[in-house]
């Protein structure tokens, strides 16, 4: 029998890798984990946590403005970018230290080095050249920003990795892309006082989300002062003194302090040696895995964004835990990647779970829609022109709730609880039978009794394609 230095070697100490290492160690495995940057990964260091802190910072502007309607007289506020960045750094350092302490408590050996795969059971540490043999190797290296479009001057652009530590608050910012990273940072910086523009190849924001929510976020960003350039991308970026000039396909140019590329993320597998070891990768470089996170090589597994299944931190954590249960706990566990709640932390924010209206209509023969748009109670005194939008998507044949979508304050918090109901297969009648909490925005979810629309799939003849007939309630 071959000798192994460890039972499990984890490459990448982000959310998924740390969870897998700790749980495996709890089952008695000898575990080592290598991280080339900082313990905590994208979410803790340069993702969800620092982003949410900046979201909070940006929303105080609205709070100061709203206070007058409630009788408060507030002196003219001022904002310090440096103080925010310093506070952010202090918090992520604290969290990173907690992650490391938890690994130590679990008996996991933490190695500060980039690690690459040499073969099915061997990794090499680039810091000192050492080789370690492992029964199992787990790839948990996450994702990395896509540097598109590839245009002259791209080297002057920044990504979401860089935006948290800019030396000063940008006066003018061009964001390329219209996904969740783009719209979140556009919302943040617009409220902090930056003149923000978005350039994107598409005709709307947040592809893949429910259409009504997409439109609501777009309109809210426009109201916040964001300038959209739909169907246009930069063709080149020029450096002029301390400024950048971004030329767009429309023929215009924008003079800005920074150009931020937010056109997506891809699995961080380049240079890991996976191809040499025989690990199958897909066209994007993601590790191809089965339901139990095993790659094409029996001893090598992968979890989290590096597999490109569903790029969310809670998914990486769940996959890491399931991997450890399966391989070291004797409890085969597959993660189900459906009805996963998610949030987009724009202002107002999105909270969503389940199928969108268009997705449901593509699958089910009869789809009922219940929707509402209303002014929240707080806005009646603040005078703010804002609306809360809610939509419930229902299987018209069974009354089962297929999806719930919210745009408004605390939408993410609501989506977390709604995910329980959707996962358990709640029916619209169950929502209707639930007593409302008044006065809240969330009460609308259990008081929407009147159907907004019904979409039925009608067969128009033996050779005719299916058609969708909309029946307005």
Fraction of residues in H or I helices: 25-40%
**CATH architecture annotation name of the largest domain:** 3-Layer(bba) Sandwich
Provide the domain count.
3
Structural class determined from secondary elements: alpha/beta
Apparent shape: globular
Multimeric state: single chain
Determine the N-to-C terminus distance: 70 Å
Over all CA atoms, what is the radius of gyration? Answer: 24 Å
CATH class of the largest domain: Alpha Beta
CATH superfamily of the largest domain: FAD/NAD(P)-binding domain
Largest sheet: 7 strands, mixed
Within the CATH hierarchy, at the fold level, what is the topology of the largest domain? Answer: FAD/NAD(P)-binding domain
Strand elements, count: 23
Average pLDDT, all residues = 94
Q: Which parts are unreliable, with pLDDT below 50 for 5 consecutive residues or more?
A: 459-473
Percent in strands: 25-35%
Family: Belongs to the class-I pyridine nucleotide-disulfide oxidoreductase family.
Catalytic activity: 2 glutathione + NADP(+) = glutathione disulfide + NADPH + H(+)
Disulfide bonds: 43-48
Domain Pyridine nucleotide-disulphide oxidoreductase dimerisation: 340-448
How would you portray this structure in words?
The chain has three domains: 6-144 and 266-329, FAD/NAD(P)-binding domain (3-Layer(bba) Sandwich), CATH 3.50.50.60; 148-262, FAD/NAD(P)-binding domain, CATH 3.50.50.60; 342-456, FAD/NAD-linked reductase, C-terminal dimerisation domain (Enolase-like, domain 1), CATH 3.30.390. The chain has twelve helices and 23 strands. It has helices spanning 15-26, 41-46, 48-67, 81-105, 180-192, 211-223, 313-327, 357-363, 377-382, 411-423, 428-433, 444-447, and strands at residues 6-11, 31-35, 109-112, 115-119, 122-125, 131-139, 143-145, 172-176, 195-200, 227-230, 234-240, 243-248, 253-256, 258-261, 265-267, 300-302, 342-344, 350-354, 366-374, 388-395, 401-407, 453-458, 467-472. Strands 1, 2, 3, 4, 5, 6 and 16 form a seven-stranded mixed beta sheet that branches. A seven-stranded antiparallel beta sheet has the order 17-18-21-20-19-22-23, sandwiched between helices. It has a four-stranded parallel beta sheet with strand order 10-9-8-14, covered by helices on one side. A hairpin with a 2-residue loop joins strand 4 (115-119) and strand 5. Helix 1 (15-26) runs parallel beside helix 7, helix 3 (48-67) crosses helix 4 and helix 3 (48-67) crosses helix 5 (180-192). The N and C termini lie far apart (70 Å). Homodimer. This is Glutathione reductase. NAD(+) binds at residues 177-184, 264, 305.
